[in-house]
Fold this protein.
Amino acid sequence: MKKEDIIAIQHLLATPKKIAIIPHRSPDGDAMGSTLALYHFLLKLNHNPIVISPNDFPNFLAWLPGSETVLVYENDRENCTKILNEAELVFTLDFNALHRTGEMEQVLSKLTVPMIMIDHHQKPDTYAAYTYSDTNIGSTCEMIYNFISFLDKKQLIDKTIATCIYTGITTDSGSFRFPSTSSTTHRIVAELIDLGVENSDIHNSLFDDNSYHRLQLLGRALQNMKVFPEYKTSYTSLTQKELDEFQYQKGDTEGIVNYGLSIKGIHFAAIFIEHRDENIIKISFRSQGSFDVNQFAREHFSGGGHINAAGGKSYESLKATLNKFEDLISKITI
């Protein structure tokens, strides 16, 4: 981050302010971990912060310290809009384009107060007054740790803040398996554990607290999986009917796409999920090696993300979307 930006932000944070902290729509572990870590940090600086999520976050993140204070825009548009309009400073975390906030974009785009973007995705927009963007870092939570260090406030990181940061690093690194997990990541995690983070309990809360219906949904997704060895690709799909059959809750499909990538010889995996209430097919892409799913998602499915992890969407039917995907993978080199 630029030295002059750090000095300017230090000046902004020198006096108590009303601060809004925004994650992207359908926030994951990194989005919630980073926003709540920043929330607790700003409380220590005597600010009045509030996290406003565009929509609900998954139940498996509801144990995060401070999650009970999070406001959900979709559930209380009037109050959230009022808070945003009264904010003196806005942080946007784990996304770099305002459209990633869904309906909140129309409010955020009209704000005139300074915005600070902290994000690790490619091709950031220019809406923020101050931008900390680094695509080489595996999680926004790791960047929050750095951000606090840049401000010369690392001594304020306690067990609560460390727990939030650890959660986002864990989820966005695939439990430290993804290539973006660096030696620096492990050194930071070691410091967090020294601060009292109960890493085993966090892993259990994130990955081992399954419902019976969630496991049934996983089973159906695995049954639906198609594998194309000649294209080094696999994909699976879930219809709205299947989501309803297994009493789908937000977050139940998290991580399913990685099962396809675990197959020997597969370097590209995807999951397509039908959401009729939004008239959309939501897509997650994963890859290993040099195949750039960020570019693939941007070019073909109005999405984006990272080289090895990205998302997209389709407004066509599920069948048409899958046909399009099969046609595309037959014409590219993976």
